[in-house]
Description:
The protein is an alpha/beta fold. The chain has 2 domains: 4-177 and 356-370, Rossmann fold; 190-354, Glycogen Phosphorylase B (Rossmann fold). 41% of the residues lie in helices and 15% in strands. It has helices at 16-30, 70-87, 97-109, 131-146, 155-164, 190-197, 216-224, 243-252, 268-273, 289-296, 309-313, 328-340, 345-352, 357-370, and strands at residues 4-8, 34-39, 55-58, 91-94, 115-120, 150-152, 171-173, 203-207, 233-237, 259-263, 277-280, 301-304, 321-323. The strands form 2 sheets. A 7-stranded parallel beta sheet has the order 3-2-1-4-5-6-7, with helices on both faces. α11 (309-313) links the parallel β12 and β13 (321-323). The two termini are 12 Å apart. 46% of the residues are buried. This is Glycosyltransferase involved in cell wall bisynthesis. Residues 15-176 form the Glycosyltransferase subfamily 4-like N-terminal domain. Residues 195-352 form the Glycosyl transferase family domain. Pfam families: Glyco_trans_4_4, Glycos_transf_1.
Amino acid sequence: MRKRIVFHVPSLRGGGAERVFVLMANEMAARGHAVTLFVWNAEGPNAELISPKVKLVTLGLAIHGEGFGKPATLKGLARSATFLRRERPDVVFSAPEFANLLTALALLIGGCRAAFFPSYHAAASLESNGLGSRIAPMLTRLVAWRATKAIAVSSGIGRDLSVGGFRDNQVAVIHNPLPPLHRRNTTPQPWQAALAAMGEGPVVVTLGRLVPVKDHRTLLKAFSMLDPARKCRLVIFGDGPLKENLVAYADELGISDRVLFPGYVNDPAVCYAIADLFVLSSTSEGFGNVLIEAMAAGVPVVSTDAPHGPREILADGRFGALVPVGDPMALAGAISQTLAEPRQASDLKMRAADFSIGVIGDRYEDLIGERA
């Protein structure tokens, strides 16, 4: 049965939750549903991924730093309630964490009786900063009361939600989908020339925001411990507030001539195409989309055993080494071992297929069908 579906994320910046919702909006629209992607700000690299079949609605609120600020947040809440009252959707999906709280309020204020599926993408996912940290504890039970079901992108997050106020039978574990990895840009980029100028040798790659939770410092330290005779090169894709700090740390470690910081690249296929190994060094991961992307490209992976997604994705280490969080020596050892004895690309691709967008789309439609 055709449903009127709203997917809500605050913006279309480069975060994992935003990309997931654009992909799922596209998939639900391709299946014949009437899909609206509702955002407070439509700027960001994920905007170019939206299917023509998806209706985009934006409030046009300005982003300041990493958020909207208190006055704009209150304005966005009021306008969201008006939007939901007017549109009267059958189903509303929201993400990430603080947006779920605001969406629950908007549904109540707007008198919208849509099925509500808040989606949680981060470990200890009900935590937030500033205004969120003060009101989230009070609103958690409101979200649980209003939610038809909560979506946890890993079993670990599902357990967090059960502890945080959701009933066990109110949580559905649905992993993030594997995005299409077709190269969208074949024009040579400046960073590719810079990488070639570093000479020959295996290329170790990581993708992610340059923020503390990704723990790039541990990766840099581990990389500095590798045998120089291997002539490995490290490419850290992503932007963020720690870039200058990390560049300085690479210089301090004496590896700056073998480390490249190309910034954010909105074409993951290009990133994996140059990789001999992918490394995730996070201290915490709700899921770890980049692991399945790398595996789908046939690239061997090494990951910290961060809560919660990597262990689920890698099947307890069957498809890639898992090392303790914040342990550069263990990480260096796993990198060396995997470069010497990489797993078969065919096995990695087969595992990645378990997270195909078709499989995940079926799970989303199952949720919709569960509502009477």
